[in-house]
Design a protein that fits this description.
Pfam families: Trp_oprn_chp. The chain is mainly α. It has a single domain, classed as Butyryl-CoA Dehydrogenase, subunit A, domain 3 (Up-down Bundle), CATH 1.20.140. About 70% of the residues lie in helices and about 10% in strands. It is built from seven helices and three strands; from the N terminus they run H-E-E-H-H-H-H-E-H-H. It has a three-stranded antiparallel β-sheet with strand order 2-1-3. Strand 1 and strand 2 form a beta hairpin. The protein is rod-shaped and about 125 Å long. The two termini are about 70 Å apart.
C-alpha cells in the first residue's frame, strides 16, 4: 500500500511539473501598443514572464518526485510539506489572473513598453486554469506522500514488534510450564506421594541395566 501510494504521488508530481512547464509557454496576457510610429501591434506575455515562479515550481515538483523514490517516512513528510507550500504558491498564481485589476500596466512593465502607448489588453485564462489543475494534482500527491509515510511507519513498527511478540509468547509458555510442574509437585506432596520417587526409580533401573554404569 505504501509503495503504491508513493508511485502514484510521483506520477502526479511529474504530471504537475509538465503541466506547469506547459502553462509557462502559454499566453497569459496580450496588450495592444500604438506608439504613433506605425500600425498598432499586439504583444503577448507568456506564463514564464507573467508568473516567473512557474518554471522554478515545476522544477521543485520534479525534484520532489525523484527524491520520493527512496525517501524514508520522515523524509516523505518533509517532502509533503514542500509540496504543500508549492500548492499554495500555485494557487495564488492561478487566482491572481482573475483578481489583478490592471493587467495592461503590469504587462507593459514586463515587456518594457511605455504605459501611454497602450491601446488595449486582454486576459487569457488557459494558463491559469492549467496552473490550478496542476496545483490540485500536487495537493493529491502531498496527501499520498503522507499516507505512504504513515503506512511505511506502521509496517516497520509491526516488523520490529513481531520478534518481540514471539519472544514474549515463548517466555510466557515456558513460565506457564514451569508453574504447572511446580504445582503438580506440591499436589503430589499434599497427597502424601514423593514426587521424586519416579525419577529415582528410573535412575536405579538405568544403573541396573547391563549397559548402565554402576554407582
Amino acid at each position: 500500500m505504501a509503495d503504491r501510494s508513493r508511485r502514484v504521488a510521483q506520477l502526479l508530481l511529474l504530471v504537475a511539473a509538465l503541466g506547469l512547464w506547459g502553462a509557462s509557454r502559454l499566453t497569459w496576457v496580450s496588450i495592444i501598443v500604438a506608439d504613433g510610429l506605425g500600425q498598432p501591434r499586439d504583444i503577448d506575455v507568456n506564463g514564464a514572464a507573467w508568473s516567473a515562479a512557474l518554471t522554478p515550481l515545476a522544477l521543485v515538483l520534479a525534484a520532489v518526485a525523484v527524491a520520493a523514490l527512496a525517501a524514508k517516512p520522515w523524509a516523505l513528510r518533509l517532502l509533503a510539506a514542500v509540496v504543500a507550500a508549492a500548492v499554495a504558491a500555485l494557487g495564488y498564481l492561478g487566482v491572481s489572473q482573475w483578481v489583478v485589476a490592471d493587467v495592461a500596466r503590469r504587462a507593459a512593465g514586463i515587456v518594457d513598453v511605455a504605459t501611454n502607448t497602450l491601446a488595449g489588453s486582454s486576459r487569457h485564462y488557459s494558463g491559469a486554469v492549467l496552473t490550478l489543475i496542476c496545483a490540485g494534482c500536487a495537493l493529491a500527491a502531498a496527501v499520498l506522500l503522507l499516507r505512504a509515510a504513515s503506512s511505511s511507519g506502521t509496517t516497520a513498527a509491526a516488523r520490529y514488534a513481531a520478534p518481540a511478540v514471539r519472544r514474549g509468547d515463548s517466555a510466557r509458555t515456558a513460565g506457564a510450564g514451569a508453574a504447572m510442574s511446580e504445582r503438580m509437585m506440591w499436589d503430589a506432596i499434599d497427597e502424601g506421594d514423593d514426587p521424586t520417587a519416579d525419577s529415582t526409580s528410573d535412575a536405579d533401573a538405568a544403573d541396573r541395566e547391563p549397559g548402565g554404569q554402576g554407582r
